[in-house]
Amino acid sequence: MTGEETTAVIGPEGLAALVRVLVARGRTVIGPTVRDGAIVLAELTDGDDLPYGWGVELEAGHYRVRPREDGAAFAHSAGPQSWKTYLHPQRERQWSADRGPDGAWAVTEDDTPPPSYAFLGVRPCDLRAIAVQDRVLAGGPHSDSRYRARRERAFLVAVECTEPGATCFCTSMGTGPAVDGGYDLALTEVVDGGGHRFWARSGSDEGASVLAELPRQPDDPSVATTARERVDAAAGRMGRTMPEVDLQVLMRETLHADRWNDVAARCLTCGNCTMACPTCFCTSAEDVTDLTGDHAERWRRWESCFDLEFTHLPGGPVRATGHSRYRQWATHKLGTWYDQFGSSGCVGCGRCIVWCPVGIDITEEAHALHAERAAGGAQGEATA
Prior knowledge:
Structural class: alpha+beta
Radius of gyration: 23 Å
Largest sheet: 7 strands, mixed
Number of strands: 15
Mean pLDDT: 93
Low-confidence stretches: 380-384
Shape: globular
Helix content: 25-40%
Order of helices and strands: EHEEEEHEEEHHEHEEHHHHHEEEEHHH
Number of helices: 13
Strand order of the largest sheet: 1-11-10-9-8-2-3
């Protein structure tokens, strides 16, 4: 049960203390850090591991880290990874089997206890993406017990966005730049003439308990006011937008649009967009054995709907062309996801735009489909 929200103003020393407190509570702290020319998610053991003074340049098919002058820790947009890397791992062993001397097989389910994660720096769009995966993987009659175990043990520290990137469009998707729940702690970073500080507030009882252990700066109501103003201003500075239409209807009514031919001519069907997406969840099973044939394992790994074998049936693949596979991904993400899960599968993080090697932009494609429909083309629903 969540009690009353508590708030505080902390400085960089409070942020460093936050990492120490979470580690002392037995949690594996995961957060952003600079590594190999990118701001990536990795285990943090000290507050100094955070990317103080680093930002990013983003565009379609383009990502660069750049130094900042203000020393901010969270003035960067979504990186190549999302939190699903830890909650829904890219590759995970499900069971192993060993043949005994009598020839009988003994199957052992992999029940390794999951880590107790603390995610530091969860953006509002990614917070919403976690909620989407919760509905897919932890809800309903066929929930994923391993995902659910990791999720139930996770402590989430959200960070509101005050500087959106050139490929961000969370405002269009209603997922940011402010947080609206689903966190244990929320931070908003303020760096100005008054110094470097964070407006912190709790979202759970454990969050309030952790916040109580952190060193605080003197109470200053102006910090909260400035934080809110900067988040509100960020909502008007998104680098991308979706057309202001019902995207579910748009996808349904443009299945025959000529625009799909244009994007198919550019798409490499590499699947980068699905790997970078924080909500894509498809997997495949992979069985492996040793050379003796006496030990076997089954691994679950991420799969992409861009893979030609993803829909392979005895008669061949259901979606044999790049045209059909891109259309399936986009219409599911923006349209039919509503039918399955009651929300969009897109949270506006922009990763699919940045990490597409040919710079295909899902917002550009949506605007083009809207323009084609408005001009009288692509009317009617597909029959197959």
